[in-house]
Amino acid sequence: MNRDAQPIFACRDVHVFVGDKEIVRGVDLEIPAGAKHALMGPNGSGKSTLAAALMGHPSYRVTGEIRLDGQPVHELAADARARLGMFLGFQYPVAVPGVSVANFLRAALTARRGAEVPIKQFRQELQAAFEALGVPREFMGRYLNDGFSGGEKKRLEILQMFLLRPRFALLDETDSGLDIDALKIVSEGINRAAGEAGVLLVTHYQRILNFVQPDRVHVFMGGRIVRSGGPELARELEVRGYDWLDPAAAVEGVTR
Fold first, then answer.
1. Continuous H helices in the chain
2. In whole angstroms, what is the distance from residue 58 CA to residue 81 CA?
3. What is the phi/psi pair of residue 72, to 5°?
4. Which residues contact 35 (CB under 8 A, 6 or more apart)?
5. 10 Å Cβ neighbour count for 58?
6. Which of 124, 149, 169, 192 could crosslink 87 through cysteines, CB 3.0-4.6 Å?
7. What does the pLDDT read at residue 5?
8. Is pLDDT above 70 for 98?
9. What integer pLDDT is reported at residue 120 of this predicted model?
10. What is the mean pLDDT of residues 250-256?
11. How far is residue 242's CA from residue 251's CA, in Å, rounded to a whole number?
């Protein structure tokens, strides 16, 4: 990976507040095209808050700069960021009874492309996506995430990512609640869906990184990145945990 390449995603001095409480305390990060970065850290460190804030969640007040393909997006609403090519995979995908998977995906694809996708073309693309990721076709007619298992919800999210082809994907604890078989299937889907997108994978554990191998690993504690390194850093965390790291420390400069 060429770490000098123009980043698809970049943020500078990002702080996130809930009311007057500061949760994220200054994050600098750059992710090039095709790079997979992992963000690891203990419970309560602010990882999921950072992911949601980067996507434009309205519950958070954010300061700092966020760029996608060099374009500032920090003043845009979440739906506008999504249309430009940002994607958020939720830790707990929401069920939407009454809305079929096929109708939801067509609406999402139309919003992403800025024009309605002809039904014949959509069916072809949808079938190709289902086949590529090994998702059962009967999912198309089911209501979105309604009655789905945890593994099914996560597989469907990765299918969305595959179909929408985002420029940058935030995957918030995609491994949460998955058994080892589901983890392997979802991880394979991530690898196929990622393509040339930049990816930031938020996780507590090293196990998903056995299957989705990161180019860089960042440790997030106390609302900031305190250590960055290669894949070996994740393996070290698996052995040593987080207690040996200083949550008051901060990595100087932009992490790539």
1. 47-55, 78-84, 101-113, 119-133, 150-164, 180-194, 231-240
2. 13
3. -65, 130
4. 1, 198, 199, 215, 216
5. 8
6. 169
7. 64
8. yes
9. 95
10. 70
11. 16
CA distance 132 to 158: 11
Question: What pLDDT was estimated at residue 248?
Answer: 80
Helices marked H in 56-100: 78-84
Do the beta carbons of residue 115 and residue 84 sit within 8 Å? no
CA distance 8 to 58: 23
- The residue count of the chain comes to 256
Looking at residue 256, its pLDDT comes to 73
Q: Which of 209, 122, 221 is nearest to 174 (CA)?
A: 209
Question: What pLDDT does residue 157 have?
Answer: 94
Cβ neighbours, 10 Å, residue 180: 8
- The CATH code of domain 7-94+166-240 reads 3.40.50.300
CA distance 162 to 156: 10
Cβ distance 167 to 198 under 8 Å?
A: yes
Task: Give the pair of three-digit tokens for residue 88.
Answer: 């958020």
Q: Please, what is the average pLDDT of the chain?
A: 93
Confidence of residue 252 (pLDDT cuts 50, 70, 90): low
The residues spanned by each domain of the chain are 7-94+166-240
Burial class from Cβ neighbours inside 10 Å (0-12, 13-18, 19+) for residue 37 reads buried
Mean of pLDDT values over 178-186: 91
Query: Whose structure tokens read 């009967």?
Result: 138
Supply the pLDDT for residue 253.
Answer: 66
Does pLDDT of 240 surpass 70?
yes
Distance (Å, whole) CA 94 – CA 106: 18
CA 160, distance to chain mean position in Å, is 12
Give the pLDDT confidence of 150-171 residue by residue, as tens digits: 999 999 999 999 999 999 999 9
